[in-house]
Write a structure and sequence with these properties.
The structure holds 2 protein chains of 2 kinds. Helices cover about 20% and strands about 25% of the residues of chain A. By secondary structure, chain A is α+β, with helices and mostly antiparallel strands. Chain B has one domain: Aldehyde Oxidoreductase, domain 3 (Alpha-Beta Complex). Chain B contains 3 helices and 9 strands, in the order E-H-E-E-E-H-E-E-E-H-E-E. In chain B, about 35% of the residues are buried. Classes of the chains: A alpha+beta, B alpha+beta.
């Protein structure tokens, strides 16, 4: 088993009550699969599914990019800066 | 010059350094904490930032503006995070070009892209004691959340 470490921010961090979400898996996931696994695990925040993006190493990721276990991964709920 | 800061933004200093002698158009934009959200009275805001990525995205947006409008001589972007009160600036931008059309277009592009792509989040605190993360999809600014696949 290996582990993805995913940083959380803003509403997702507050709803889960933690800064990181960890996913143990024995296979490499794509960005789309990781997002799917997160929202399957937390149906309470399902409303954010269509607007949450995944960032990998400080860049927005495309859906089909395979994720490395050492990547810096973050869930980016809808931003509201400015 | 691209920065994130926890401290109040020194707008007069940024205005002084905004132009160059070649520039006939020097524009600035202050994004300011507003005292209401629809009908609710807002007393303060708190911004959370994913700082390394926010800086990278600000740099990327500024680079895109420079390649779209090569006439740009100078861009300054400062975004503040942490708590701030009504009337304070959360973001301050300047753009300088020799002639005005490019500066107006670039300034609009910069603030619109920042609001769409830079990982910074606003939490509002209301006079009734409640608070909440602003959800752009709820109406005040729905154009933020169009998710496009961008070529990289």
């Amino acid at each position: 088993m290996q582990r993805y470490r995913v940083q959380l921010f803003a509403v997702l961090k507050e709803k889960l009550g933690c800064d990181f979400w960890h996913l143990e898996t024995d296979k490499t996931l794509t960005a789309r699969e990781l997002l799917g696994a997160f929202f399957a695990a937390y149906p309470d925040v399902a409303a954010l599914r269509s607007t949450t993006r995944l960032a990998v190493n400080h860049q927005f990721s495309k859906d089909e990019i395979p994720l490395a276990f050492e990547d810096e991964i973050a869930l980016i709920p809808p931003v509201s800066g400015g | 010059m691209i920065q994130l800061t926890r401290f109040p933004i020194d707008e007069p200093a940024l205005l002084i350094s905004a132009g160059t002698e070649r520039c006939g158009a020097v524009l600035s934009f202050s994004g300011t904490v507003r005292n209401h959200h629809f009908e609710r009275v807002v007393t303060k805001l708190a911004y959370e930032a994913y700082t390394p990525m926010a800086l990278a995205e600000l740099e990327r947006v500024a680079a895109e503006a420079r390649s779209t409008w090569p006439a740009i001589e100078k861009i300054q972007v400062i975004h503040r995070f942490g708590e701030m009160s009504v009337g304070e600036s959360s973001i301050f931008l300047t753009v300088a070009t020799p002639h005005r059309p490019e500066a107006f277009e670039a300034l609009r592009f910069l603030i619109d892209r920042i609001k769409r792509d830079v990982p910074i989040w606003k939490k509002e605190f209301y006079a009734d004691g409640e608070s909440g993360w602003l959800h752009p999809e709820e109406g005040c600014c729905g154009h933020h959340v169009r998710l496009e696949e961008t070529e990289s």
